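Lecture notes, continued. The same structure-token format from the folding unit now serves as the input rather than the output. Read the line below as a description of shape only.
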């Protein structure tokens, strides 16, 4: 309950401070662990089809996240049926081990670039699916439960506010 209230407060503060923000949403992982089979899905619609936008993937991690980077698979489905898939790598920590994200206390929020100047060409429902693609060096099988990722989200902003 407290965690949900805190997340809502942070989102409301963030929205009130950003005139360019169009949409933002977060989903919590299971007790700070992201299972590789858990594909986090967001749907959105009513996008301006003439204006370009910037899309971000937002990830909150705590001190139990054991890596300096994060590999994600992102798939964006368009109303036309077209899908764009990307494998993404983000730096999460500096070489000295300190976190790159913003925030006070043990949870850091990372606003990660996903798509720059994207135009949503048609009206309808868009779907963004996110999953982690983390593996240990030299291992073929992925990490089943990725510890330390508390929330995953996305954000869409006007690219020319």
């Amino acid at each position: 309950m407290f965690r949900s209230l805190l997340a809502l407060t942070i989102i409301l503060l963030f929205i009130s401070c950003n005139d360019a923000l169009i949409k933002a949403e977060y989903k919590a992982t299971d007790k700070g662990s992201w299972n590789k089979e858990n594909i986090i899905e967001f749907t959105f619609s009513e996008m301006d089809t003439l204006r370009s936008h910037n899309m971000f993937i937002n990830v909150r991690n705590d001190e139990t996240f054991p890596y300096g980077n994060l590999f994600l698979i992102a798939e964006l489905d368009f109303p036309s049926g077209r899908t764009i898939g990307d494998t993404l790598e983000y730096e999460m920590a500096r070489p000295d081990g300190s976190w790159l994200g913003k925030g006070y206390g043990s949870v850091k929020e990372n606003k990660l670039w996903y798509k720059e100047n994207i135009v949503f060409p048609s009206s309808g429902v868009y779907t963004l699916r996110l999953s982690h693609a983390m593996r240990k060096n030299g291992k073929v099988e992925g990490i089943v439960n990725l510890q330390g990722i508390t929330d995953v989200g996305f954000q869409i902003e006007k690219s020319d506010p």
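Point for the exam: The two ends are 35 Å apart (CA to CA).
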